[in-house]
Amino acid sequence: MTGKSAKVAALQTALAAEQAASYGYGVAGSHLTGSSFKVASTDCVLHERARDNLVKMITALGATPQPAAVAYRLPVSVRAADDAAKLAVDLELSVVSGYLSLVAVTDPALRRLAARAMQSATVRAARWGAPSQAFPGLATPH
Amino acid sequence: MAAEPTRRTMIAAAAAGSLGLAGFLTGCKGIAALGPVPPVGADVVTLEHAISAEETMVAIYQAAVSQLGNTSITSGNGSDAQIVAAIRTEHVEHLRELRARLILPPRYAKTKPGANKHPAPPQLPADAKAVIAALAGYERSAAARLVGELVTAPAALAQLMASIAASESGHLVYLHQAGVA
């Protein structure tokens, strides 16, 4: 895989995670009220911005961004606020994993962007109640 | 009248001379006389920095756990000492994983300045809440340093460093929860 195609593939993976998060927060938000709803709305906007930014980056490389799915099979069945928080945790941890391959590309700016996205998503996951993790995004650190 | 050297004796003499010269140059000290150890690669230096930083974090957290043991505040998430101890365990895991990536021959390890030294932790404040705030500052700095250094690291190490930086950023949330208990 060439440097450019590796970049595009890694950006597409991150984009897929951001698209899923944008969709998922819409579902989560519909079961939340008050301050939790506000936090979910803010987090949703952050993912939408990240998604749009990734679309621009992929396009700038001369590739076509993969479109979002019409619907996603959610990992959590959301019926109440607690479920919505669990879904938010799951979405954020998926985003952390989604940026991992972008950290491995050779472009320093992309690496930095990906590492910061992993940090932000881990922080949001923690705020939604995720337990602390030594190696977020890595299935096993080997 | 001396016999003229044959081609075979000339080759034998040349070989003996070469061996003698090599023995003279090395002083019969074996491979150690070949020269100084070449400098380690940039990726090894990056990894060593990350290991050193994690050693410092473990030392800081060890000191904090000891200090908070008698003064901890308990909240719904557990005492702040318990939260700090759990984070310390994760830093130990970070350190173990980083050290596992560093494979150097013994000769390099011996020549590395400061090898096997345990860093002295910086002085922590006396007040429990101030300790938590200080830990948050160390986490923030450690995560920022990792993100700064991972840009030049080999891909797999960069991923590990990014994951550790994310973990350290997440610690800020748990420390905040401990601090406001």
Describe the protein's topology:
The complex is a heterodimer of chains A (142) and B (181).
Chain A: H1 3-29, H2 34-60, H3 81-98, H4 100-103, H5 108-127
Helix pairs in contact in A: 1-2, 1-3, 3-5
Chain B: H1 7-26, H2 42-68, E1 74-75, E2 78-79, H3 80-101, H4 106-111, H5 128-149, H6 155-179
Antiparallel strand pairs in B: 1-2
Number of helices of chain A: 5
Helix-strand makeup class of chain A: mainly alpha
Distance between the termini of chain B: 106 Å
Overall pLDDT of chain A, averaged? 96
Largest β-sheet summary of chain A: none
Point out poorly predicted stretches of chain A: none
| Amino-to-carboxy terminus distance of chain A | 22 Å
Unreliable segments of 5+ consecutive residues of chain B: 9-24
Q: Give the DSSP E fraction of chain B (strand runs of 2 or more residues).
A: under 5%
Helix and strand sequence of chain A: HHHHH
- Structural class based on helices, strands and sheet pairing of chain B: mainly alpha
Q: What is the approximate shape of chain A?
A: globular
Query: What strand line-up does the widest sheet of chain B have?
Result: 1-2
The amount of helix of chain A comes to: 55-70%
Q: For this entry, what is the oligomeric state of its chains?
A: heterodimer
Biggest sheet overview of chain B: 2 strands, antiparallel
> Which term fits the overall shape of chain B?
elongated
Protein chain pair with the most extensive contact, residues per chain: A-B, 30 and 31 residues
Number of extended strands of chain B: 2
Model description:
The complex is a heterodimer of chains A (142) and B (181). Chain A has helices spanning 3-29, 34-60, 81-98, 100-103, 108-127. The longest helix of chain A is centred in the N-terminal third of the chain and has 27 residues, at 3-29. The two termini of chain A are 22 Å apart. The mean pLDDT of chain A is 96. Chain A is mostly helical and 142 residues long. Chain B has helices spanning 7-26, 42-68, 80-101, 106-111, 128-149, 155-179, and strands spanning 74-75, 78-79. The model of chain B is unreliable at 9-24 (pLDDT under 50). In chain B, helix 5 packs antiparallel against helix 6 (155-179). Chain B has 181 residues and is mostly helical. Chain B has a two-stranded antiparallel ribbon. Chain B is elongated. In chain B, strand 1 (74-75) and strand 2 form a beta hairpin. Classes of the chains: A mainly alpha (142), B mainly alpha (181).
